[in-house]
Amino acid sequence: MTGTANIRYFEDVRVGETLPPLEKDISLVRMMAYGAATWDFVRLHYDSDYVREHGLPSPPVDGQMLGAFLAQLVQDWGGRGSYLRKLSFQNRGMVFSGDTITCHGQVNATHKSKGESLVECDLWIENQRGEPVVRPASATVRLPSRSESP
Q: Which residues have C-beta within 8 Å of that of residue 132, sequence separation ≥ 6?
């Protein structure tokens, strides 16, 4: 992609703006790929027989993976030139292989600090039943400003 088509400028952001939802189907393959990428081979996150023996319906998602999806939500919205400065989240429910989750976000503040143009977002994740599985969550993202030199 060339030009500025995928750049979100600080001046164009409005408090109350919603981030486009990010939906993810949670498959065992996706969970195993994430485990391999992060060198996290905890049996609980990939062995269906093992987790059933311990009373769970299927392997639960590693909580870090949910944080990665929130980071993707914010970075996709921010576009090129955005920088995730801070991400905070609390897991409130379990997500299992076979679930579908949707990541949501809304801009709650914009401000300048130490020469940076910052946007504060409230974030959350719901499962396919509309139940919150991550909440509260928040992000601070730095966006380019039209007033900055290229």
A: 92, 93, 124, 125, 126
